[in-house]
Automatic annotation (TrEMBL):
Protein name in UniProt: Amino acid transporter transmembrane domain-containing protein
An example Gene Ontology biological process: amino acid transport
UniProt keyword Transmembrane helix present: yes
InterPro entries: AA_transpt_TM (IPR013057)
Bilayer-crossing regions: 72-93, 99-121, 221-243, 309-330, 350-374
Record bears the keyword Secreted: no
Originating organism: Arachis hypogaea (Peanut)
Gene3D superfamilies in alphabetical order: Amino acid/polyamine transporter I
Localization per record: Cell membrane; Endomembrane system
Length: 391
């Protein structure tokens, strides 16, 4: 009897255990099903979210580019029409009246080579080909090997040197404002010596603030402002030159240009003048970086149109400002056209001030690719630095 009772209890226990096992399996199955449902819902939500955000990104996964022909032209003009415009009168003085023709030839050469370089932005197909985001990357993908290192060293050294040059030019313009006002208010009784050290520090401090701009894509407003400033001081210099010619009642200058003590010095002056003209058109080392701001898919076509507009505009300004400056002062034209004028004081000060503002933007246009290169190298070496933190 006892054995029978034990057997009944064991059977009941086994049945209960089996029921519990089945219940656990059902619960587990339900839980698994629920997890899967949740996973599917998350995937669907993610897909919808991704689909909605797809319009914010380009085909390479980067934030959508919004640049147009006008914004690209603004970048180029900011980079090209700089303080070099004011040195063209001196350059033409070394070359004679034929210098105007030489300026136009340099413009055509710059336009021709810029079209070739614009084709290098995408590898293969100009619409769907792989993008080259920087000049150095284009060299690496097209030429390969050590060529990218060699060209990269030249490019970034040039960007660094140009930035230093712009810093010095901005300091000289600020010094000119100080000196002009000193002479004016002292009625010419003071020598008005001005040191440029603290002006260089001031300009560097300003650049520390503007260098916080994340990349060249975020600089549209600064580029537009710099473009306006470029036209402003160029037009002021042009107007002052025309006024000087009117006062002289004649055009100065000769066919052969300024004379020199020796043939060697004359040759050296000619090469300096050609160097000034070439520098005035220099923007090839940042062309691809500028092109990377253009919205797809017609980056190459848009870049060529922007280059046509910018180089044509720059060449007209260069020829007119250079020839008017040479016509006003002849072979004694100064290296910086604005330094030849002292009245009206407010207009000369305005021209120098707009030049300083333009150089702030030009400095950033040339420095941003250098900043991007340094940040990329540091991020690859120390990944923890690659994270962005909003303040």
């Amino acid at each position: 009897m006892h054995n029978t009772q034990d057997i009944i209890e064991e059977i009941s226990s086994a049945a209960t255990t089996q029921d519990r096992i089945e219940e656990i399996e059902e619960i587990s199955s339900a839980a698994t099903t629920q997890d899967r449902i949740e996973e599917i819902e998350e995937i669907e939500i993610s897909s919808v979210s991704h689909h909605e955000d797809a319009s914010l990104y380009d085909d390479d996964g980067r934030q959508k580019r919004t640049g147009t022909m006008w914004t690209t032209s603004s970048y180029i003009i900011t980079a090209v029409i700089g303080s070099g415009t004011l040195s063209l009168a001196w350059s033409i003085a070394q070359l004679g009246w034929s210098g105007g023709l030489i300026v136009m030839i340099f413009g055509l050469l710059t336009l021709y080579t810029s079209h070739f370089l614009a084709n290098c932005y995408r590898a293969g197909d100009p619409i769907t080909g792989k993008r080259n985001y920087t000049y150095m990357e284009a060299v690496e993908n097209i030429l390969g090997g050590k060529n990218s290192i060699f060209c990269g060293i030249i490019q970034y050294a040039n960007l660094y040197g140009t930035s230093i040059g712009y810093t010095i030019a901005a300091a000289m313009s600020m010094m000119a404002i100080k000196k002009t006002n000193c002479i004016y208010f002292s009625h010419g009784t003071k020598t008005c010596h001005v040191s440029g050290n603290h002006y260089i520090i001031w300009f560097g401090t300003i650049q520390l603030g503007f260098s916080q701009i994340s990349n060249i894509h975020k600089m549209k407003w600064l580029s537009n402002l710099s473009t306006i400033m470029s036209f402003t001081y160029s037009l002021i210099a042009l107007a002052l030159g025309i006024a000087q010619i009117s006062e002289n009642r004649a055009f100065k200058g000769t066919i052969a240009g300024a004379e020199a003590e020796t043939h060697a010095k004359k040759v050296w002056a000619i090469f300096q003048a050609l160097g000034n003209i070439a520098f005035a058109y220099s923007f090839s080392d940042i062309l691809i970086e500028i092109q990377d701001t253009i919205k797809s898919p017609l980056e190459v076509t848009t870049m060529k149109r922007a280059t046509n507009l910018s180089i044509t505009t720059s060449t007209i300004f260069y020829v007119v400002c250079g020839c008017i400056g040479y016509g006003a002062f002849g072979n004694s034209a100064p290296g910086n056209l604005l330094t030849a004028f002292h009245k009206p004081v407010w207009l000369v000060d305005l021209a120098n001030l707009t030049l300083v503002i333009q150089l702030v933007g030009a400095y950033q246009i040339y420095s941003q690719p250098l900043f991007a290169f340094v940040e990329e190298r540091i991020t690859k070496k120390w990944e923890i630095i690659g994270k962005e933190y909003k303040v």
